[in-house]
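Homework help board

Subject: predicted structure for assignment chain

Our instructor gave us this sequence and asked us to write out the predicted structure in token form, then describe one feature. I got the tokens but I'm not sure how to describe them. Can anyone check?
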Amino acid sequence: MHDDREIEDIDDVPVDDTEHKNEEHCDDDLSSQLQDAEERVLRAQAEIENVRKRGQRQLEDALRYGEMALLRDILPVLDNIERAIEASESTTNVETLREGFRMTGSQIEKLLENHGCEAIKTDNEVFDPTVHEAISQQPGNGAEPGTVIGVTSRGYVLHDRVVRPAQVIVAAGN
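My token output:
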């Protein structure tokens, strides 16, 4: 059985346009997705740059104004010192002035503690070169050699760092 229709040459068969349109549509979708991805990347890069700049500004502000809390706390102490100076001009009572200085000193010590700064322990402590600076040795009068027997300048630590080592006198061996 032979079909009445003649077999057409395959090259003469018209190509279905839907395949070509599907490829173009697919290319448009990919192009659109690529463009969206590039825009998201650019937005993400801009956001990262903004976060970096904001972080840098915050760090600079923290370094520049980090002492603000300490200054707010120390200003009342300065006010008390100025009042003591004024009072010293109108009184001859040395004991009252001495008590005023003790109170001001205690106020400063409390302020330092509130900010994480503490005095280095020295009384009858074994000399520790990480926090003490020996400025001389003297006979210990019963104290163990290498023990701190005197302080010429108090030392301080801020959290775990030495701000200033304590200058001490150490008991010498016999």
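Reply (TA_rk): Your tokens look well-formed. For the description, you could write something like this. The first helix runs from residue 17 to 65. That's the kind of observation they're looking for.
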